[in-house]
Structure formats: C-alpha cells, structure tokens
Amino acid sequence: MSIADAVLYTARCFTEGGLSVIPLRLDGTKRPAIRSWEPYQDRIATDDELVEWFREPKGLGIVAGVVSGGLEVFDFDLDPLRVFNSWWEQLPSDIRGKLPVCETGGGGFHVLYRCCEVTGNKKIAFPADRSKPYVETRGEGGYIVATGSPLEVHTSGSPYMQTMGLPLPDLPILTANERATLWRIARSFDESEQAKQECREHLRRQSPTVVTEVDTSTPWGAFDVEAKWSDILTPHGWTSQDGERWMRPGKKFGPSARVNIATNGCEVLTVYSSSAGPLAPVGTYQTWGKFSAFAALNHSGNRSEAAKAVRQLGYGRAAA
C-alpha cells in the first residue's frame, strides 16, 4: 500500500468514526492543504473529497469541536514529559483509563476525548515568563495533526503515533464533571505571576477579619483557625513555594494540592493526587481541614489522640 493509500484509508476510518478530517501540507508548517478548511468545521468531508485530497501523500488533520462529536484535545507542548506525566499521575484512575494519548512529532502529547461541553482553543497553564503555554486545548475552531500522517508533516521528521488508550477513532465521552477535573488539574500548573496574584487576591477577599462559625475554645477549632499549613505539611515532606500550592512527598514537579477558603472562613487543603499518602482522596479530590489533616498525618486519623496533642501545643481554651 502506498503512503497516499494508507493516509486515505486512515482518513476513511476517522470519518466513519464521526471525525471531520482535512488534508495538511507536507512542508513542516502543518497548515491545511486546501484553500479553506472552514466548511469542515460544520460538516464531514464526503468520500469523493477524501479521494481527491489524498491522491498524493498529504498530512492528515482532525477538526475538533461539535462537528467531530464534541471533540476536545489537550495539547502538551512545552516541557511535555514533566508536565504531562505529572498531570497524568493526578488524574483519577477511572478517567485516566478512558483516555487515548498520542505522541506528537515534536515530542509533545495530545489527549483526546468527547464531551457535551466544548469550548474554543484555550491556553490553560503558563510558565512564569508566559512565553508559551505548558497546556492548551484544541476545541471549536481548532484542529490537530492526526496519527498516520507522513513524517514530513512536522519539521522534526518524527511520527505522530498513539501510545495509550483504545485505537482511534474510538473516543471516550466524558461527563461535564470529568472534563472539569481534567481542566482543574491542568490549571494548577500555571506558574505565571498573574495566576499567583489572582490566587492571593482571591484568598485575601475571602478571608474574614474574624472567623465565625468555629468554636475556638476547642483544641480542634482553635487549630483550624490558628495553625499554619507549613507547620502541618512540611514535617511530612510536602513542599510549597507560595504557601498556596503544595507538592506531595517524592514528587519533583507540579502541585498535588491547593489551599482554598471554606465557607466558615478557615483555610482548607484540596488534595487531588492519588499518591498523597494519608491525605490521598478517595475519589477525584478531597478537602482537608487543618485539624483533620494533622490527625491523618500524625495519628492515623484518630481525632481524640490528635486533640490531646494539639491541646498540649497550646490550642484551645484550657480546662477550668
């Protein structure tokens, strides 16, 4: 089978699977090889069009968005090994097991899924200098290079190939909540100063001058209000650069948890790493108060023992 015939065969498989495809140039630009690909954001090409496009070798593109059944693609292109692996590790296993992963010609990764909710192309997480995103998506109005494209589609001369998941065009359909989990974990990698400032302002706006609804006469209530997360987590190997995003022990890159503000005004820790030891979530994520986290880390969750310990540290009103 010639290269052109092989790409045509793949294009037909994709269209039969409900994916809109377009031909791409083989000059390393990854640009469409037709005058306009806009029509194929609204409809899937006919077989006659496919035959015409792929008479000669061309790259193959998959159009994201509603036309392809709500296709959305996560694109990891900057420092992809570290960022992708850390993001992948934090995904709940039930979601992770569904997702097809493709390695790109540039050494990055594409993660594909369908959902009833799909947006346009979005940049999700940046490094501190905001030079180029760690993570972005291809959605409505976007496309990706497909596996099965000739090597010349990318300047590297390396192939696009699927490395995990059911073979394309089989695609999982995620719920809106599952999709939100992917996005939430990806956003946690944003290191830009803008993101840090927004987080600091968010915490400052939501932190009341006087915490209510918490009985600070009890050792656990006082601990929830007065203790510092650094005193709770650092002795157990957790690390943080800003006091808001925390990385679990043994991890070298990417946050495993984030400090938020509960409705009672207390700081809580939302953990979304399944490898976070005693603080690992049972499901997608788990939120810990300071006292509960202290008890889990130091007393196997025994709150009575933990209460005695924090009282000895001076938290709570002394008994009469």
Structure notes:
Strands 3, 4, 5, 6, 7, 9 and 10 form a 7-stranded mixed sheet that branches. A 4-stranded antiparallel sheet has the order 11-12-13-14. Strands 1-2-8 form a 3-stranded antiparallel sheet, with helices on one face. The longest helix is centred in the N-terminal third of the chain and has 14 residues, at 3-16. β4 and β5 (109-115) form a beta hairpin. It has 2 domains: 3-187, Prim-pol fold (2-Layer Sandwich), CATH 3.30.2250; 193-312, no CATH class. With 320 residues, it is an alpha+beta fold. The chain is 30% helix and 18% strand. It contains 10 helices and 14 strands. Residues 205-212 have low confidence and may be disordered. It starts with a helix and ends in an 8-residue tail after the last helix. The radius of gyration is 24 Å and the shape is elongated.
